[in-house]
Specification:
The protein has 28 helices and eight strands. By secondary structure, it is an alpha/beta fold. Among the domains are: 186 residues, Glutathione S-transferase Yfyf (Class Pi), Chain A, domain 2, CATH 1.20.1050; 59 residues, no CATH class. The chain is globular, with a radius of gyration of 25 Å.
C-alpha cells in the first residue's frame, strides 16, 4: 500500500483545508524554500513557539476587524497569518524523515500545538462571521465555490455551537492528533528481525544474498523493512522463513498500539457524536465525493461482487500450485501468495521476476521517471542546490520555459528511525505569481535492484508530487494545491502507475548492468502476466477498506479490534487470518485516512476512467497530457472533482468502467495495456 501524505490526517482534514499551504512574498528565493536542517530539537521548539505566537496575534486582529468584509481583506489577512506559519510547515515531513529523535519529538510537540491553533481559528465565531459577511457580488465562480465550501466546513467543525461545545471539540481534536502521532511513532520505531541459516535463503537473488552476510553464529539477519521483506516474500523457497517474517511484520507495534488505537477510535467517535453525526465515518466523509458511508458500502459491495469469481479463480490456481509442493495443503496462506504468484507467472507466462529486476536499478529508474515527466509535460528536472537533512536526500527543481515552477526533495532509501513506507508530503502549495510549490517524498527502496512493483510505487508517489507541482495556479490558499475532495487525490497517482507497463517508458529506465535495454518481447510477457492475481489482491484491498470503515462506522465500545477484523477478513479476504498477527496495530492508514481507506479503490475507479482517454489517443500524446495537466492537475481545488473529470472525459465519471474491468479478470480475459 502506498499513500499520499498531505501533512494532515483525514480525521482532522476538515479543519486543515489550508494546513499544508502557506503564502510567501513574491521575492522568495530558493534558499527560503528549504528548512534549516541545522536546527536541534530545542531550536525547533523555540521556532515553533515564536512562530505560533506571531500567528495568534495576527489572528486576534482578524477577529476584531470591523471594516467591510471583502475577499482581499478577510482572505488576504488569512493568507498573511499562514505566511507567518511558513517556517514550521515542514514539521510533518521532518517528523517522518529527520534522523534526529530529538527533532522528531520536537516536531510531534509542534504538530500538537499547530493543530490546536488551526482548530481554534476554524472554531472562531468571529472569523466565521467575517467569512459569512464577504460580499461575493463580483467574485469569480472559483471564489464563490471557495467561500461556500469554507462556510460548510465551518459549520461542520462546530463553529455555530456554544462555547462549551467548541472548547470540547478543540480538546478532542488535539487529543486525536496526539494519539495519531503516538500510533505512527510506534510503527516507525518498531523494526523487527528474524534470523535464519544461509540455507534458508535459497531462491533469493544473488545480490540479496550478498548483501546479507553470515554473522559469527552462522546466522543471517533479515528485517521487516521493505528492501528485505518484499524479496523474501516473493523469492524465498523456505516457507518457514516467509511465515516467520510475515508474522513479524504484521506484529509490529503490538501490543503498544492496541490501547492507542482503541483510544483513538473512541475519541473520534466522541467528536463525531458531539458534532451531530452518527459515526466518525459519517463525519470524515461529509463533503467528499462519496459524501456518506452508505455510498461507500454500496461501492465496496459492488467491487466485492465483481471480484468474487475471478478472485476465487486466482486462489484456486495458487492452491493447485501449492499442492504440487505440499499435497496436504487445503488453503493458501497470506505469506505464500507472492511466492506462488511468482511461480505461476514464471511457469504459465514464462515470466521470470528475477530476470526482470535486473533491469530496474534505482538510479536508472529515477532518471527514466524524470525523462517521462519531461517528455509528457514539456518541462525539465534539474538539481536544486540546497541543504538537506541526510546525505541520502536529493533536491530537485522543475523548470518550464527557463523558470522554476516547483521544487522537491527525495528521501528514497531506508534507515533507522525513518518512516517505513512510501509517501508524498505537500510542504507548500503554489500560488499564482506568488510562490512555487514545494514537496517532499520518502520511500524505502533499495539502492540497487528494484522489483517492478517498486517501480510502480515510485510512479505512484511521483504522481502525487507532480499533482502538487502543477497545481500552483490559484490565487487563494483555500483552493490552491491539493485541496480538492480527499477521495480524489489518489487518482492522479494511480493513473501514473499505468506507464510502468508501457514499453516506451520502460525502455528509458529498464536497463541492466550490461547496458541492455529491456526488450519489447519481455514487456509483452509482463503485460500478459499482469492481471494474474489482480482480482485476489484487489479483494484484499477491499477487505482493508471494509476494516477501516467498520472500525469507524459504529460505537467503538460495541466491538473488539481482533474479533471484528477476523470477521471482516472471513467475509472479504481471499486468504485466512494468520494466527498471532495484529495487522490493525501497524495499519498506518488508520491514522492518515481513518475510515476512508476506500479512497484507494474509489480513486482507482476514477483513474481507470481518466486513463481510457490516454488509451484512445496514446500514452505519449502531448495534447492529451496537456489537457490532463490543465483540466485535472492545474484545477487544484477550485471546483468539484467530478467537474474536473467530466471536463477531461467529456462525460461524467462512472465507477462502472472499473467494475467491468474487475469482472473481466477471470483467467485470460482482462485486456492489458499495450506494450507498444
Amino acid at each position: 500500500m502506498t499513500a499520499i501524505r498531505l501533512a494532515v490526517p483525514v480525521a482532522i482534514w476538515m479543519w486543515f483545508t489550508l494546513g499544508t499551504a502557506v503564502a510567501a512574498d513574491s521575492s522568495h528565493s530558493s534558499a527560503r524554500d528549504g528548512w534549516d536542517y541545522t536546527l536541534t530539537g530545542a531550536g525547533l521548539t523555540a521556532l515553533c513557539d515564536s512562530t505560533l505566537a506571531t500567528a495568534r496575534e495576527a489572528f486576534g486582529r482578524l477577529e476584531q476587524d470591523t471594516q467591510a468584509a471583502t475577499l482581499q481583506r478577510v482572505y488576504g489577512a488569512y493568507d498573511a497569518i499562514l505566511t507567518d506559519l511558513q517556517p514550521i510547515q515542514h514539521i510533518w515531513y521532518m517528523k517522518a524523515v529527520h534522523p534526529s529523535p530529538g527533532v522528531q519529538t520536537a516536531a510531534e510537540r509542534c504538530i500538537s500545538q499547530y493543530t490546536d491553533f488551526i482548530v481554534a481559528m476554524n472554531l472562531s465565531p468571529a472569523f466565521y462571521q467575517r467569512v459569512a459577511a464577504i460580499d461575493l457580488s463580483e467574485a469569480s465562480d472559483q471564489e464563490r465555490y471557495m467561500v461556500d465550501r469554507k462556510l460548510r466546513l465551518f459549520r461542520q467543525s462546530g463553529v455555530d455551537r456554544d462555547a462549551a461545545t467548541r472548547k470540547q471539540v478543540r480538546a478532542l481534536v488535539t487529543d486525536i492528533t496526539d494519539l495519531g502521532s503516538r500510533f505512527e511513532k510506534a510503527i516507525r520505531l518498531d523494526k523487527r528481525y528474524v534470523q535464519v541459516t544461509p540455507a534458508q535463503l535459497a531462491g533469493l537473488p544473488r545480490d540479496f544474498v550478498d548483501a546479507h552476510p553470515v554473522d559469527e553464529q552462522g546466522l543471517v539477519t533479515i528485517s521487516t523493512d521493505y528492501p528485505d521483506y518484499l524479496p523474501v516474500m516473493k523469492y524465498a523457497s523456505s516457507d518457514e522463513l516467509r511465515h516467520r517474517l510475515f508474522k513479524a511484520a504484521k506484529s509490529i507495534a503490538t501490543p503498544s498500539n492496541t490501547e492507542t488505537l482503541e483510544r483513538l477510535l473512541s475519541r473520534r467517535h466522541e467528536l463525531a457524536v458531539l458534532l451531530g453525526y452518527d459515526s466518525h465515518a459519517a463525519l470524515a466523509m461529509d463533503g467528499l465525493m462519496t459524501a456518506r458511508p452508505q455510498t461507500v458500502q454500496q461501492f465496496l459491495a459492488a467491487l466485492d461482487s465483481a471480484l468474487q469469481s475471478p478472485a476465487n479463480s486466482d486462489v484456486d490456481t495458487l492452491l493447485s500450485r501449492l499442492q504440487r509442493v505440499d499435497p496436504q495443503a487445503q488453503q493458501v496462506q497470506a505469506w505464500q501468495v507472492d511466492w506462488l504468484t511468482n511461480l505461476v507467472q514464471q511457469e504459465e507466462y514464462a515470466l521470470d521476476a528475477r530476470e526482470i529486476r535486473n533491469y530496474f536499478h534505482f538510479d536508472r529508474v529515477q532518471s527514466g521517471i524524470f525523462a517521462l515527466t519531461e517528455d509528457l509535460f514539456g518541462v525539465r528536472i534539474v538539481p536544486w542546490q540546497t541543504p538537506t537533512w541526510h546525505p541520502d536526500v536529493t533536491a530537485w527543481e522543475i523548470r518550464e520555459q527557463g523558470r522554476a515552477i516547483g521544487r522537491f526533495y527525495l528521501d528514497m532509501h531506508p534507515r533507522d528511525n525513518k518512516y517505513g513506507h512510501a509517501a508524498h508530503w505537500t510542504l507548500r502549495a503554489g500560488l499564482k505569481d506568488r510562490q512555487i510549490p514545494l514537496s517532499g517524498m520518502a520511500t524505502n527502496f533499495p539502492r540497487g535492484l528494484m522489483e517492478h512493483k517498486q517501480v510502480e510505487s515510485f510512479l505512484h508517489e511521483f504522481g502525487h508530487l507532480l499533482h502538487n507541482m502543477f497545481s500552483g495556479t490559484q490565487r487563494w490558499l483555500d483552493i490552491a494545491g491539493m485541496t480538492m475532495e480527499r477521495d480524489f487525490v489518489e487518482a492522479p497517482s494511480q493513473l501514473l502507475e499505468q506507464w510502468a507497463w508501457h514499453y516506451e517508458t520502460l525502455r528509458e529506465l529498464a536497463i541492466n548492468d550490461q547496458g541492455q535495454r529491456i526488450s519489447p518481447a519481455l514487456v509483452e510477457t509482463m503485460n500478459a502476466a499482469q492481471h494474474f492475481g489482480e482480482a485476489a489482491n484487489t479483494r484484499t484491498q477491499v477487505f482493508y477498506a471494509n476494516l477501516a470503515l467498520h472500525y469507524h462506522n459504529r460505537d467503538p465500545g460495541s466491538f473488539e479490534l481482533l474479533p471484528l477484523m477476523r470477521e471482516l477478513q472471513a467475509q472479504h479476504s481471499p486468504y485466512p487470518y494468520v494466527q498471532g498477527t495484529h495487522f490493525y496495530n501497524n495499519f498506518r492508514h488508520l491514522n492518515g485516512y481513518s475510515s476512508n481507506y476506500y479512497i484507494y479503490q474509489w480513486s482507482q475507479a476514477i483513474s481507470m476512467d481518466l486513463f481510457s482517454r490516454f488509451q484512445r489517443h496514446g500514452l505519449r500524446d502531448k495534447g492529451t497530457a496537456r489537457d490532463y495537466r490543465e483540466q485535472i492537475l492545474a484545477a487544484a481545488g477550485s471546483k468539484p472533482a467530478a467537474d474536473m473529470v467530466e471536463a477531461f472525459l467529456g462525460r461524467p465519471f462512472s465507477p462502472a468502467t472499473y467494475t467491468r474491468h474487475l469482472g473481466r479478470l477471470q483467467r485470460g480475459r482482462a485486456t492489458p495495456v499495450s506494450a507498444q
